[in-house]
Amino acid sequence: MSKYAFGIDIGGTTVKLGLFDEQGQLLEKWEIPTAKEHGGEAILPDVAASVLAKMEERAIVREDVAGAGVGAPGAVDAEGNLVNGAVNLGWGVFNIPEVLGGLLNMPVKAANDANVAAFGEMWQGGGKGYDNLVAVTLGTGVGGGIIVDGKILTGATGAGGEIGHMHVEDEETEVCGCKNQGCLEQYASATGIVRLANRRLAQDNKASLLREGKVTAKAVFDAVKAGDGLAIQVAEQFGEYLGKGLALVACVVNPQIFVIGGGVSKAGEILLSYVEPVFQKYTFNACRGARFALATLGNDAGIYGAAGLILREEV
Amino acid sequence: MSKYAFGIDIGGTTVKLGLFDEQGQLLEKWEIPTAKEHGGEAILPDVAASVLAKMEERAIVREDVAGAGVGAPGAVDAEGNLVNGAVNLGWGVFNIPEVLGGLLNMPVKAANDANVAAFGEMWQGGGKGYDNLVAVTLGTGVGGGIIVDGKILTGATGAGGEIGHMHVEDEETEVCGCKNQGCLEQYASATGIVRLANRRLAQDNKASLLREGKVTAKAVFDAVKAGDGLAIQVAEQFGEYLGKGLALVACVVNPQIFVIGGGVSKAGEILLSYVEPVFQKYTFNACRGARFALATLGNDAGIYGAAGLILREEV
To answer: Measured between beta carbons, which residues in chain A are less than 8 angstroms from residue B155?
Structure first.
């Protein structure tokens, strides 16, 4: 008898859903819109209806489903309570497994979406085979998810792994989204890289491919690959901030591996080449064995990790 | 039927032992010398003999002993393997529970001594009532021990919580014991505070109590209490480094509480007054609820934590 699990990743615009077999293979994935109206009251009923419809479509009986995992955009404690609600969904404080489990009549586990994505990369992605892992997501911001001995490090208030807000620069004058100044995410995110590039471009008139089009993180790394001197300086600055930041992280949680994902990571292995040597220079000697890998699951990391909350102990 | 456990803290000079009841009360503590000769081969037999003699002395039968916990000065993995040996004891790589458990005929658990001390402060000390905790030991160096959801964070190579070696200063020219430059322990340890004070004293001829005797961390904080302006500058600098460093730690593991111990912490609450405001300024807003407390178990933290490895789940 084959077993299944559902992985559910609730975002502000769409809910991603995935059906997995017990070996952790993604059998099918689909999306539904996130119904944020009226405090998001329809979101979980919509999710439940979609899951139950999929079971009917595939003639999967309840007994063959191990459960459903959920990633939610907010702090979630070990019992699945959304401790501060989820402002992007209009949700207040409640227990996700209780509500969705009631609708689905199956075991439900929930965790923060960034942490769930980290869990997914550990289970079936770039960190497969490791159980002490730090996942770093370089997108609009810098997100982090930490796995210790195979378990998500949630932290006291769900802020475990908020490495994008480590203070790494005393001289910063611009303010981060979190209202502090000098956060890692001001230098190592997609927007941070653009800021570093624009600052560098304004310094002098040195020729650069970056003067020709829109400055984006992708344009910076494309120019690096083309040998552009100015872009290389920007990449070095980015690597200096991120490598030093991860060296600090290693002194705290001493992971086996860093898995780097998010839009910026599409630059590929060249990105790691700017980060890893800086990391090695600044971290504690006992932490130098940490490996660096690129994330492999992309936007599916959330549904993988959510299903993994249910299936991993069984795999 | 009352139950007992032994807590054993193996140091380079002495082994501290403690007999605890199942409520975690320390009934008796004593020490034996650490026999480091011949690769430390007699250390565990000596420990076993001392434990068995204590049981005989008190007429405690084997059935009433839940087990013995051990803190060892080296990296210890989750199974109790001393993964790199213990250079201070002359020990190579072996499994502590296997060897000592064989000698004692009882369950034995082992962990790194700094982590065990952190566990002790959580179980019966300054962090009692919390299970997400960072213990910071300000002694000759800066040690750390991290507890996540009631469990020691060991890390991939036993370097979890090595926060003394976080790189926090780019301008440093002196070299840390770990061979890096700009480690937190170069500013926040007892020796680090002396260095900061000596540097400040050399800057100019400003009057200070610190010019009158030997400059120690204790002398600095005594002078702070006496209102000495120069000493206050040194304390502010210390607080800036440590507060910022712990702000970084909070963005990674998001603890409920920081418990500050070690010789420097004998300065008392005034020490926290230099650290906590800096922490609050630099950490991520979701981490600002973290409390600060002084360690309360002193040199007994190790035997408490070691016994706690055995007893805590039963308390």
So the answer is: 132, 253-255, 287
For residue range A221-280, list pLDDT tens digits in order. 999 999 999 999 999 999 999 999 999 999 999 999 999 999 999 999 999 999 999 999
Q: Where are the domains of chain B?
A: 4-121+300-314, 129-296
* Alpha-carbon gap: B201 to the closest alpha carbon of chain A (Å): 25
* Ranges in chain B, pLDDT < 70: 1-2, 314-315
Cβ-Cβ contacts under 8 Å for A36 (sequence gap 6 or more): A12, A43, A88, A89, A90
Q: What is the C-alpha to C-alpha distance for residues A111 and A134, in angstroms, rounded to an integer?
A: 16
CB B103 within 8 A of CB B48: yes
* Closest partner CB to B286 (pick from A148, A158, A282): A158
- pLDDT tens digits along A200-212: 999 999 999 999 9
B94 vs A: CB within 8 A: no
A95: helix, strand or coil: strand
Residue spans of beta strands (DSSP E) within A139-284: 142-148, 151-152, 257-261
Amino acid letter, B285: N
Structure tokens of A49? 């209806």
**Taking residues A189-209, what's their average pLDDT?**
97
Average pLDDT over residues A90-102: 96
Q: B301: closest CA among B77, B135, B108, B65?
A: B135
Contact B282 A167 (CB under 8 A): yes
pTM: 0.93
What is the fold of B129-296?
Nucleotidyltransferase; domain 5 (3.30.420)
Length of chain B: 315
Q: Rounded to a whole number, what is the largest CA-CA distance in chain A?
A: 68
The reply to whether A4-121+300-314 and A129-296 are identical in fold is yes
Please name the CATH architecture into which domain B4-121+300-314 falls: 2-Layer Sandwich (3.30)
B85 CB near a chain A CB, below 8 Å?
no
Q: Chain A: nearest CA to B34, how far in angstroms?
A: 26
For B152-184, how does the pLDDT look when each residue is reduced to its tens digit (9 = 90+)? 999 998 899 999 999 999 999 999 989 999 999
pLDDT of residue A1: 54
Burial grade of B129 (CB within 10 A; 0-12, 13-18, 19 or more): exposed
Residues of A with Cβ-Cβ distance to B282 under 8 angstroms: 167, 180
Closest CA to A184 of A124, A225, A144: A144
* Interface confidence (ipTM) of the complex: 0.92
User: What confidence tens digit (pLDDT) does each residue in B291-308 have?
Assistant: 999 999 999 999 999 999
* Residues of chain B contacting A289 with CB distance shorter than 8 Å: 156-157
β-pair type (A133-138, A142-148): antiparallel
Q: Calculate helix-pair angle for A301-311, A113-124, nearest 10 degrees.
A: 80
Sheet holding B142-148, edge to edge: B151-152, B142-148, B133-138, B257-261, B291-294
